[in-house]
Request: fold
Amino acid sequence: MRTRLIGVCVCVMVISTVGSWAADRLEAPESMASAAATTTAAVGTVGSETTVSPYIHPKMPDAVREKLQAAVQIAAARIEEFEECGDLFANLGADGLEMLSTTLYFPARALNRRDGMCRRAAAYTTVGGKSTFVCQEFSGLSDKRAAMYVVHEALHHAGLSEKPLDRRGMTSLQINTMVGTKCRF
Reply:
């Protein structure tokens, strides 16, 4: 009984620490987020195409910035073109184009580049968070794959949860599969 109680206590402590760690590391510093919030993000049209212009931090590496800009435009086109793709956001009570345009993109923090989140992901955010951190590896993705990740992270911005923090949520791979299918990536 005592061994089981100790095991439960350890699990609770680990889960609490991981949740706290994730939230601490994934939020943009207050000064960065407030400065970004004053920057105008836009959704517009050029000809018959919708263009989305989210905030991208000025210190984003050029190769990552270029890939991200292309990926956001592809993601916006898929959300508009395929109803099932737009419905991913509508089912969360959100507008996909608005989620793309209101995301604040920051370069991944140095401590997450080698040993942290960037070992497992090309980009990451928190559920409901506006800030998405983009790893250097993002620049090496195909445009379509990068767009799929942009939609994935925008769904988190819209409120979609994920395992392991939500035991009932989908895994990252399941979300990618769903986005790939619904948005035809």
DSSP finds eight helices and six strands in the chain. The longest strand covers residues 42-46.
